[in-house]
Specification:
A hairpin with a 5-residue loop joins β2 and β3. The protein has one domain. It has 124 residues and is α+β, with helices and mostly antiparallel strands. The radius of gyration is 14 Å and the shape is globular. Helix content is 23%, strand content 30%. The strands form two sheets. The chain has a five-stranded mixed beta sheet with strand order 1-3-2-5-6. A two-stranded antiparallel sheet has the order 4-7. Keywords: Signal.
């Protein structure tokens, strides 16, 4: 059992260390819902066109996540991060970044996943 907690601790520490803000995450848009399938996700990502956004961050990827208050669904171009701890990913407007939302338990989530593949998880 101890190795499991050690791995979880490392995953959370790594996720926190990679949660960087990107001042060029400017393509933020409120949407009614997120894509539910890989095909819908690919279509939405193509429409958002994150790869052509001018920035000085690591690669920007399409995200569809909740806001910090879990009251809105957001589409945004942002660097992907590892979300650890079986919680949902959120876009934090104050930090201008994708991060884990400790108040949003994620149904069917693994211990860790990349934020840009949230369509595979139950976001709400």
């Amino acid at each position: 059992m101890l190795p499991f907690f050690a791995v979880l601790y490392i995953a959370v520490a790594f996720a926190k260390s990679t949660e960087t803000n990107c001042p060029f995450s400017d393509k933020v848009k409120s949407v009614n819902s997120c894509p539910q399938t890989a095909a819908e996700w690919k279509e939405a990502a193509a429409r958002k066109n994150c790869k052509t956004t001018s920035h000085n961050c690591s690669s920007l990827d399409y995200h569809c996540v909740i806001n910090a208050w879990m009251s809105e669904t957001i589409e945004v171009c942002a660097p992907k991060v590892i979300i650890a701890g079986m919680v949902c990913a959120e876009f934090n407007f104050g930090g201008n970044r994708i991060q884990r939302n400790e108040n949003a338990a994620c149904q069917n989530c693994p211990e860790a996943y990349y934020s840009n593949v949230a369509f595979k998880k139950r976001i709400r």
